[in-house]
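The methods section describes the discrete structure representation at length, but only in general terms. Since the whole study asks how a given chain folds, the encoding of that fold should be made plain. An entry of this sort, consisting of the sequence and the corresponding backbone structure tokens, reads as follows:

. . .
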Amino acid sequence: MKTIQGPAIFLAQYMGDDPPFDDIDTAAKWAAGLGFKGLQIPTWDSRAIDLDQAAKSKSYCEDWQAKLAAHGMVASELSTHLQGQLVAVHPAADEMFDGFAPEQVRGNPAARTEWAVDQVKKSIKASANLGLNATVTFPGALAWPYFYPWPPRPAGLIEEAFAELAKRWQPMLDLAEECGVDVCYEVHPGEDIHDGATWERFLDQVKGHPRANILYDPSHFVLQCLDYLQFIDLYHDRIKMFHVKDAEFRPDGRVGVYGGYLPWSERAGRFRSLGDGQIDWNGIFTKLAHYDFPGWAVLEWECAYKDNLVGAAEGAKFIQDHIIKVATGSFDDFADSERDTGANRRMLGIDS
């Protein structure tokens, strides 16, 4: 078994214009001071990394890594959540998602998609230059508006959506294979890949591509009333990344899974800081250790109540306390005896 790496923290909810989050050097120092060992990097934020440079220059990557190493930190993974989302956008969401793209491609879905694909490819190349073996992204969504439809969906609609989604991602997965980097899709409501069934549908469309893998975040499964522990049993061979984010689901006679268009703090399902929700973290860390999960335990802070700085400080210790330092032997090794086939057969009554 393997000991999970960590704790690490996703900087997407922290990078900003104010110190220490306006520069990767000071952000790394802040994270190290809390006890984090790794940083998951939002590649759309130039304060965190210059993705263009990282994709083409190993010397840039070495200098960038040296900034982290000065504080005892490393990059756990690169993220293209925002860019990956733009690989596939339903027209109903065009205007809302335009804000994720640079100004020159806004209002032009075809140009925006081309830009997004280029960004994901750069993240794959940059990951290889940094010596990272995985990158995380969103797959995008063409079918999401039809997930609970009225009137009923026409025959073939979902099949067509997933065929197109796979067609767009196939070249990026092939590049990932060339670079030795896994593409990990965060299984997430709002994406066409949002549960096990949709993951299987996508994986079938890309013909089981070895570089198509999963970022596991149980908080999204709590909000769907999905068995997040069995999900690990079913898909552990494809789980290569892990977001540690808590959640709770408290439905009543007024609000359930769909949230009633309410703000996060008033929904039945909401994200919480670590330890404040309902997730069985001992069960999750045990299963991931059992299945030799090879990656990092990465805090993603999203809480309707607690301040993000408090969530980070508490989260580092929470993750550290839950990482299982796996055993190198069995607890009953002291009572072991050498194999004796003859004695074994006699004890079983096989030999008279």
